Amino acid sequence: MKNSTNNSPSINVVGKETVINGDVQSKSDIRIDGILKGSVKTKGKLVVGSSGVVEGDVECENADISGEIKAKITVSQLLLLKSTSKLNGDIVTNKLSIEPGASFSGSCSMGAVIKDIKHAEKQDKQEKTA
User: Fold this and answer.
1) DSSP string, 22-52
2) How far is Cα 84 from Cα 68, in angstroms, rounded to an integer?
3) What is the pTM of this model?
4) Which has the closest alpha carbon to 92: 125, 59, 44, 45?
5) Residue 47 resides in a domain
6) Which of 121, 119, 94, 99 lies closest to 109 in space, CA to CA?
7) What is the pLDDT of residues 7-50, one digit of tens each?
């Protein structure tokens, strides 16, 4: 008889009428339809729904934004700004897609900058273990 393991990825959800004050860290995907007043750091995908608001720095692998972000966002792969999105802050990403109608105010750094960030993270880990 085989042992079954549940390897399905979990999704963390902040509901539409929910307000969170504080930082969120996760290894899995996060969906925000409410308001988050704090930073978000995930190794997965961040989805901000059309009613979602994030007021703090964001770090993630991929991001799909339909709502509002008011801070710096760092995405190691693809950042997608949907037509209803509003981003007031700086973008650091590898790839960027902006739909017509999206609002973006800030600076944008792409490509090699992400490689520098990953290299710096590896050095930090090596220094901590030394």
Assistant:
1) S-EEESSEEEESSEEES-EEESSEEEE-TT-
2) 9
3) 0.78
4) 59
5) yes
6) 94
7) 546 888 888 999 999 999 999 999 999 999 999 999 999 999 99
Do 37 and 56 contact (CB within 8 A), yes or no? yes
Q: Which amino acid is at 14?
A: V
- The string of pLDDT tens digits covering residues 65-79 is 999 999 999 999 999
Give the position of tokens 């996060």: 30
Fill in the amino acid letter for 98. Answer: I
Q: Is residue 53 part of a domain?
A: yes
**CB-CB contact of 73 with 79 (8 Å):** yes
Give domain status of residue 110, yes or no: yes
Counted domains in the chain: 1
Question: Which contiguous run of DSSP H or E holds residue 124?
Answer: helix 112-129
